[in-house]
Amino acid sequence: MTQSIHKTSEISNSVKIGNNVSIGPYCYIDGNITIGDGTNIVSHSCIFGSTTIGNNNKIYPFTNIGCDPQDLKYEGEDSTLIIGNNNIIRENVTISKGTKADNLTTQIGNSNLLMNGTHIAHDCEIGNQNIFATNAAIAGHAKILNKVIIGGLSAVQQFTTIGSYSMVGGASAVDKNIMPASLVFGNRAKLRGLNLVGLRRANFTNEEIRKIEMLHKNIELISSLKNKKEFVNVIEMFENYLKLHNEKIGTVKE
Question: Are the C-beta atoms of residues 33 and 47 closer than 8 Å to each other?
C-alpha cells in the first residue's frame, strides 16, 4: 500500500485510505470516511461525516464534501454521501450529505465534472458523465440522470428531475422536470427543442434522432393532457431507449 499524505493535513483514525491515494497540504478529513484507490485530494479540502469516495477521483482545493445540509429541518441525523469513480471536483465545490426527509443519502455517480463553485445539495442523485459548469446550483432532492450539461450560473429547483442527454443553457432557472434529450434555457427555463448537438456527439444516428423526436412529441402531447401515469411511462421508455444506445456503443464509463 502506497500513500502520500502531507504532514500539514489532519486526518482522523476512522478514515480508511486506499492504495496510491495522494492527500496534499492543509486538508481536514474527519468521520466515517472511505477514500478509494488512486484518488488525489490536491490541498485545502474538508471532508466530513459518513462519506464514501470511490477510485481515481481528483478533488481540487477549497472543496467542502459531506458537509451538513443547508436545510433548517436537518437535526443532525446520521446521513451519508456516496461518490463514485473518476470524478473531477474543482475548486470551491460544496456537496452536502442526505437528510431523513428523503433516504438519508446524497449520491454522485461516475465520471462527472463539477466545475468551480458548483453546489450539490442534500439528497440529490447525480448519474454518470454529467457536466456542471461554473457556479451551477442544484437544490435538494434533485435528480440529474446521465450525460447532462448544466450551464454556468444555472439553478435547479428542489425535487426536479433532468433527463439524460439534456442541456441547460447558462444562467437558467429550472423549476420544472426536463424531458430527456432536451435543450432548455431561460428564466424560467423553457423547452427550445432537442439537444441535437449532444445527441450527435454521443453518436446517435439520424434514424435514432428521428425516433427521439417522435418520443419528444409523444411526451409533450401526454403532458398537455395532464395524464401523469402515462407521462411517467413514456419517460421511462425514453430513458430505457437511451440506455440501450449507451450499451450498444459502450459509452457509459464506470
Answer: yes
186-220: pLDDT as tens digits = 999 999 999 999 999 999 999 999 989 988 887 77
* DSSP characters over 17-84: E-TTEEE-TT-EEESSEEE-TT-EE-SS-EEESEEEE-SS-EE-TT-EEEEPPS-TT------EEEE-
Can you tell me the distance from the alpha carbon of 252 to that of 142, in angstroms, rounded to the nearest whole number?
21
Catalytic residue (one of 66, 109, 119, 122):
122
From the candidates 24, 54, 109, 140, which is the catalytic residue? Answer: 140
Q: Where are the domains of the chain?
A: 3-194, 200-249
H-only helix segments in the chain = 196-201, 206-224, 228-249
pLDDT beyond 60 at 252: no
- Residues 131 and 48: their CA atoms lie apart, in Å, by 24
**Cis before 188? omega within 30:** yes
216's torsion region: left (phi>0), alpha (psi -120 to 50) or beta?
alpha
Q: What is the rounded CA–CA span in Å between residue 78 and residue 82?
A: 14
Any catalytic annotation for residue 123? yes
216 given a catalytic annotation: no
Query: How far, in Å, CA of 29 to CA of 57, rounded?
Result: 16
pTM summary value: 0.94
Please determine, looking at this structure, whether the domain spanning 3-194 carries the CATH number 2.60.120.920.
no
User: Is residue 123 within 8 Å of residue 99, measured between CB atoms?
Assistant: yes
What count of residues does the chain have? 254
CA 146 to chain centre: 8
